What does this fold into?
Amino acid sequence: MVATPERGRANPAKPEWHVGASDDASLLASPPSCPADPAKPEWHAGASDDASLLASPPSCPADPAKPEWRAGASDDASLLASPHSRPAAASELARESYDHRVSDLHPPLLRWYDAHARDLPWRRTSATPWGVLVSEFMLQQTPVARVLPVYDAWLARWPRPADLAAEPSGEAIRAWGRLGYPRRAIRLHAAATAIGQHHGGEVPDDYDALRALPGVGDYTASAVLAFAFGHRQAVLDTNVRRVLARVASGIEFPPDAVTAVERALAVDLLPGDDPTAATWSVALMELGALVCTAVTPRCGDCPVRDGCAWRSAGHPAHDGPPRRGQAWSGTDRQCRGRLMALAREAAGPVGVTAVERAWPESDQRARCLDSLLSDGLLVRVGAGYALPG
Ligand code: SF4
It folds into this structure.
């Protein structure tokens, strides 16, 4: 069994989510009982419309007792799937039905995670909050396989925030290697410094204090609280948002930016106690990474397939705004990456000739050099460039 992220208060050994006693089939959520009708606009409206996230999968509007586990979990009536108002009694029934089906999701996914989770260093019980914070910085834009060697070397060299803060930020950039988006290295170095200055060298166990650290947004703060400290905290990364959009909202992809509705749904779906909620959060993430992938979801292997609204609806195609691609060749990102690699691999300052050779297109090169200087990733040394000392 792979250790789950429960450090601090969460504990993967706790039996409450292994649920071995129950009959598997009984734990799976039932699919919506009415036939799929992807033409119905109320549940696959444009992804940019918040309300669309709450729309029902194949809806059965004639039967208020079957809201089909729509997002209307909370007391907020606006979160109910149907665009039509419901009488109070029906809302109560909806809430009851929703709660029942949400709780049905937990055992199969948690069991699946127990059996299939990858053994990653930041998930082990030996991982420190600092190790979790480092992993979250690195994983923000970079796949696990590329992060692993850099992460191991980073933690071996800088096992505590103070170790990193004691060295120049240029060393952090150098150690960041080819993970991309090297501003993350600068911010992680600044976060390590702030942790030493304001938190006695320990990663804070507090949302606001985490958010105040350089480079830490809502996602990273939530992930650290859940995975380092075992709190009941909704964690909305790309994988989780995609899984929730499919399972609960019946749409292939979530909107570009996190909406309040998505956040409310994610909170509603959390199991009630801290350790199980923390494991649920990482299990959703793992399902999105391994099974419910963006392009080729493996629904046949999915532990929540019987309760998945998008699958039940027949996998209707995305009809929201076009999804952003990840262009690389010829972009400023590629140019910046090449200039950073030059500086990282050089023993001293890099001369102008080498810079021109690395990226011949002069306007783009000048623009990228300016942005690297302004981001603090490079400094001028005489007529050349180097990592900050
Ligand atoms: S059934 Fe398919 S689409 Fe639904 S959550 Fe599972 S893998 Fe994703």
Notes: Confidence is low (pLDDT under 50) at residues 1-98. Residues 332-386 form a domain with the Arc Repressor Mutant, subunit A fold (CATH 1.10.10). Strands lie at 379-381, 384-386.
